[in-house]
Amino acid sequence: MSAPSSPRQVRAAIERFLKGSRQPAAIEPGEEPIPLAEGNFSLEDRNARLVLHAWSDRTNLVRRLTGIRLEKAGRLELEVERFGKRPGQISLVDLGRPGQETSLRRGVRHVFREQFRRALARQFPDWKIAELSAEPNLEYSLSPAYPRALLRKSQSGLAALACPRDVGCANGALSFGLIWLDYLRRRERKLAVDGLVLFLPAGLERTTCLRLRHLNPQMARWLVFACSAEGYEQPVDPNDHGNLETRLEPCRTGAVSESRVEQWIERLCRAQHVERVEHGDGSISLRVRGLEFARAAGDRLLFGLDTLTEASETNIAEIERLAAEVARLRSPDAADRDNPLYRRNPERWMESIVREQLTELDASLAPAPVYGQVPAITGLERGVLDLVAIERAGRLAVIELKASEDLHLPVQALDYWMRVAWHQQRGEFASCGYFPGTVLSPEPPRLLLVAPALQFHPTTETILRYFSPRIPVERIGLALEWRRRLKVVFRASGAERPV
Question: Would the CA dihedral through 274, 278, 281, 283 be positive or negative?
């Protein structure tokens, strides 16, 4: 509708909005929402203008209202006059109305974007903020969760990215930062974008700093700032930010302590498609195409898919029937590929195939032993499955398995590789009983990223381009029907394009 200038009309529109709202709030672009509850806002007539005054524990807002831009259920957009008679806009939004989550998220992003702008101005006063955005760019995989900026000084540029105070976002910041840096370098051909600046929540910057040590220092300058909850930031040196928190438990694979449990395991393993996987802690996992249906530890055998039950002699036939039913439903020839057992844990199914046909994946690898999740990684969101194998010549190989597209696969794999390399450099694999009878090579472990050929994210090559050349990384693409048979359709070293 047209924008009336009468204070009476504006007041009437606000009163209609408030009357029909359950959780009204005022949102100005780049600022936090202010609830419009009784006692924390007022409407006053001043010099033929209607003035809105709203306040909270964190902020205070005073604006002259000059007109109406949009009025609809749950939303009222008003034209305002800011200090210095600058025009602006403010939105009144019913946060309790279904469908307003998108507006609220956008408002929160804009608030964080403006905080980022102020941080950039403080830390880089001699640089111009040539671009600042918190909008999504799906074509180039740029997330709206991370506001991003281009800083410019003469013919030099810096890519900058900020991360909100969220553990999951902090773990993904480096991936999106590298994508943004690479995007700017391809777009700004006349500008030397020679560095990446990351603003990370204080207390959540450690993982990124550890990863940065394993990037190529010749590719870019890596700058990190730790941002406090109070809105202040401090520079951080990634090379002086603590050591890895990792531990390699002694390998205790072998038979369980109770002979009758071992007899049950041997009986169950006679069934078709049942796999026996020994863990470093001494437990034994019984699986069908990667899906565990029983586990033995000490003198106990537990079985079940969701709820575990302790087994006795009378249960063994029941466990055999369970394994047979899992094998029927979890089969590459299954008629119903939408059933939950077929779709559950695809990385575990891929692990099963890889363990069985390891030399098909890479002929230089010894078929056994293969260890899973040693060392274990805690505190990080990980959608990949980790294996450690060995070449016949004694060189370690870290194998990362992913059955679906994942933008973060390279940095998640880096997390595991750098821990394996850390223990290898200290000779702990041999001293802890891994790969008995084999002399381990001092060469850095190989890093193999394994996924269906069409499921590598388009940005994988971009991110790998910035890895240190000391990390021998290789992508291995599998044929679509990998559940039926392991067939390698391409191999690519580092950031090379598959051929």
Answer: positive
293/334 same-domain check = yes
Whether residues 228 and 267 fall in one domain? no
* Residues 426 and 318 occupy one common structural domain: no
Same domain, 357 and 392: yes
What count of other Cβ atoms lies within 10 Å of the Cβ of residue 263?
12
Point out the domain boundary residue: 65, 99, 133: 99
Domains identified in the chain, total number: 4
- Judgement on whether residues 130 and 148 belong to the same structural domain of the protein: yes
221 contact partners, CB below 8 Å, separation of at least 6:
194, 195, 196
447, two tokens = 């890093």
- Tell me which residues of the chain have a pLDDT lower than 70: 1-5, 30, 83-84, 99-107, 242, 254-257, 379, 381
Largest CA distance in the chain: 93
Provide the pLDDT for residue 105. Answer: 67
Q: What pLDDT is recorded for position 274?
A: 96
499 three-state secondary structure = coil
- Distance, CA of 381 to chain centre: 6
Which is nearest to 440 in space by CA: 431, 448, 449? 431
Range of the domain at 404: 345-493
Q: How far is residue 386's CA from residue 377's CA, in Å, rounded to a whole number?
A: 10
Token pair, residue 495, equals 């950031």
Q: DSSP labels for 87-137? A: EEEEEEEETTSTT-HHHHHHHHHHHHHHHHHHHHHHH-TTSEEEEEE-S-B
Could you tell me if residue 412 is inside a domain?
yes
Q: How far apart are CA 227 and CA 328, in angstroms?
A: 53
Domain shared by 354 and 477, yes or no:
yes
Say what the pLDDT of residue 100 is. 65
Q: What is the pTM of this model?
A: 0.82
Q: How far apart are CA 354 and CA 6, in angstroms?
A: 73
SS3 label, residue 347: helix
**How far apart are alpha carbons 388 and 375 in whole angstroms?**
9
> E strands, 86-191, where?
87-94, 128-133, 148-153, 156-162
Check whether residue 353 and residue 486 sit in a common domain: yes
Of 286, 314, 341, the residue that ends a domain is: 341
State the pLDDT at residue 5. Answer: 66
Query: For 417, phi and psi rounded to 5 degrees?
Result: -60, -45
pLDDT of residue 88: 83
In a domain, 498, yes or no: no
